[in-house]
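Students often ask why inverse folding is considered easier than folding. One informal answer: many sequences map to the same fold, so there is more than one right answer. In these notes we will look at a single instance of the problem. The structure comes first.
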């Protein structure tokens, strides 16, 4: 029973109930004792005191009756004397029945014998009165009766005194008993309270302390300490709970170990896969510190994983540019790619790599690191270079004969009189096609120069209003013939830009030419500009046929034209060259357009900071 918590709590209660019962019993016993003392006080002495008092009253009345007999009315005196005699004897008998004190019997017997004498003397008094007259009778009363009367009274008073003294003693006794009982009860109560407190505190502590141990164990396990064991050896519910707890933690430990093993296998597998990938891979944490470098990355960056682990990317690779690019990609998107390749020179050979960065999310969907893959695009760059070189060579080779052809046709067109109209038309067609071919060749040459980085740029301060004005002037005839209004909305007061004049004129020309091409009769083309955040933002806006969203980026690629709107007269190179020129100025270009609502080509240029 005492092994369980229930039993322990019950035993504390039982013990407390026992203590309360003990105090209650002692109190009842004290009250009983006190009661007994008071009862004795009343029972033993009160009756005798009452008897003595009544006896004195009766005899005093008898004395008066004798005087009435002598002096007033003999018959009335005798009658009343006899009545009081009855009463005296009744109280005398009660006193006899209640003898409680020493000497009381003696005093009562003396009162009894004196009283008998007193009664006898009254009979004698009657005889004397009858025989010798009232005078003799009075003498007899004074000499004989009165002393006996006093003696009876004094015996009665002795009875009274004896009992009063005893009563006083009993009262003192009762007071003493009650005082003793009171102290006794107080003592027992204090001892019981102290004992109750000690027992309650001791047992409560004994019951509760294992709960604390258990709570500490739970907290420790919560902190991840699965080795924690609880040492409670009681056989109660807590002891049972502790043993179940220990079982649970050992199961958890086993589970943890097997999960960790599985995780380790998976991790090693993943690491092996990453290590074997031929592209260079570097994994970094949120502080840009390297956490993994694969073999290929070790070769490409000429580093060793063990030397760079835990070090910042800049320190590990010794290249701030790569870090800046990774940072830019990481801050932009979860999986991101940068279109501008990085160049790593090895044994005097430039290698090109595109960086792809993929965030590693953890359980809370927060980023815990980034995988940076460096895709080797050197061979693509080489092919592109070959293609560019080829286009450049072919364009060069074509330009000379083409110039000769155009000059020849021009000469021929100067003298057309000897020609038939058919011959004239053919020469004119050769002239037009030749002109277009020269334009295409020039575009191709510009593009290849831009791509190879050989395009020169001559920066100077210029007014964007002037450039736009000049460009619009050169195209005003075409616009007029197509009944399209050209508006220069640029304020001449705008800050100056720092640009290659010719190239920016070419940019505006290209954009306005395109707008003229793709805007119907009666349309409006508006050029505007505004300076913001250290850049000049120029916009060429038309209300022509517009461009679907999916082409907004593509149209800036080489040979790219909008699907079914492809124009036989165009080459798809204009916007690519335009973008190349803008990029040379560290600017940007994009289009905002919706089919049927016109297009707005916007580009930015640097401001002159003179
Ligand atoms: P193209 O020689 O074909 O004009 P561009 O590179 O200048 O080559 O333009 C690429 C394509 O972009 C065009 O073929 C045309 O489909 C589309 N385009 C360019 N400008 C506009 C414009 N203002 N409105 C509608 N489409 C346009």
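Output (designed amino acids):
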């Amino acid at each position: 029973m005492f092994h369980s918590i229930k039993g322990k709590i019950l035993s504390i209660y039982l013990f407390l109930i026992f203590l309360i019962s003990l105090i209650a019993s002692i109190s009842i016993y004290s009250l009983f004792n006190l009661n007994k003392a008071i009862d004795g006080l009343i029972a033993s002495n009160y009756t005798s005191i009452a008897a003595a008092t009544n006896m004195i009253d009766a005899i005093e009345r008898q004395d008066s009756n004798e005087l009435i007999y002598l002096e007033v009315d003999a018959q009335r005196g005798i009658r009343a004397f006899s009545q009081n005699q009855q009463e005296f004897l009744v109280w005398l008998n009660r006193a006899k029945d209640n003898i409680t004190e020493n000497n009381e019997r003696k005093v009562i017997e003396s009162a009894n014998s004196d009283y008998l004498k007193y009664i006898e003397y009254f009979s004698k008094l009657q005889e004397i009165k009858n025989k010798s007259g009232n005078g003799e009778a009075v003498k007899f009363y004074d000499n004989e009766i009165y002393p006996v009367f006093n003696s009876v009274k004094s015996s009665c008073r002795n009875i009274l005194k004896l009992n009063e003294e005893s009563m006083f003693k009993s009262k003192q006794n009762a007071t003493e008993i009650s005082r003793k009982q009171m102290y006794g009860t107080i003592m027992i109560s204090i001892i019981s309270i102290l004992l109750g407190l000690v027992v309650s505190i001791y047992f409560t502590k004994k019951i509760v302390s294992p709960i604390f141990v258990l709570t500490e164990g739970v907290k420790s396990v919560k902190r991840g300490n699965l080795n924690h064991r609880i040492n409670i050896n009681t056989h109660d519910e807590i002891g049972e709970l502790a043993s179940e707890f220990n079982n649970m933690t050992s199961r958890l430990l086993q589970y943890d170990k097997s999960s960790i093993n599985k995780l380790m296998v998976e991790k090693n597998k993943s690491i092996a896969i990453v290590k074997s990938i031929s592209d260079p891979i570097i994994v970094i944490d949120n502080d840009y510190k390297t956490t993994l470098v694969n073999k290929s990355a070790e070769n490409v960056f000429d580093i060793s994983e063990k030397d760079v682990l835990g070090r910042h990317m800049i320190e590990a690779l010794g290249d701030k540019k790569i870090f800046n690019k990774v940072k830019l990609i990481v801050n932009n998107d979860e999986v991101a790619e940068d279109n501008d390749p990085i160049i790593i020179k090895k044994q005097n050979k430039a290698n090109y790599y595109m960086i792809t960065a993929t965030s590693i999310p953890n359980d809370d969907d927060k980023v815990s690191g980034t995988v940076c893959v460096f895709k080797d695009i050197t061979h693509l760059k080489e092919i592109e270079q070959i293609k560019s070189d080829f286009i450049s060579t072919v364009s060069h080779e074509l330009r000379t004969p083409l110039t000769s052809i155009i000059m020849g046709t021009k000469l021929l067109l100067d003298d057309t009189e000897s020609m038939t109209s058919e011959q004239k038309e053919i020469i004119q067609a050769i002239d037009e096609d030749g002109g277009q071919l020269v334009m295409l060749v020039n575009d191709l040459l510009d593009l290849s120069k831009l791509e190879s980085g050989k395009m020169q740029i001559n920066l100077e301060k210029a007014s964007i209003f002037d450039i736009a004005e000049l460009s619009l002037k050169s195209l005003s005839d075409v616009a007029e013939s197509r009944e399209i209004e050209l508006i220069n909305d640029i304020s001449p007061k705008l800050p100056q830009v720092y640009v290659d004049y010719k190239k920016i004129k070419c940019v505006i020309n290209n954009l306005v030419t395109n707008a003229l091409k793709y805007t119907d009769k009666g349309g409006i083309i508006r050029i505007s500009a505004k300076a913001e955040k250290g850049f000049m933002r120029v916009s060429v806006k038309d209300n022509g046929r517009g461009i679907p969203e999916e082409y907004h980026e593509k149209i800036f690629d080489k040979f790219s034209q909008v699907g079914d709107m492809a124009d036989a007269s165009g080459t798809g190179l204009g916007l690519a060259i335009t973008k190349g020129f803008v990029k040379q100025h560290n600017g940007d270009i994009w289009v905002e357009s919706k089919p049927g609502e016109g297009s707005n080509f916007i580009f930015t240029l640097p401001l002159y900071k003179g």
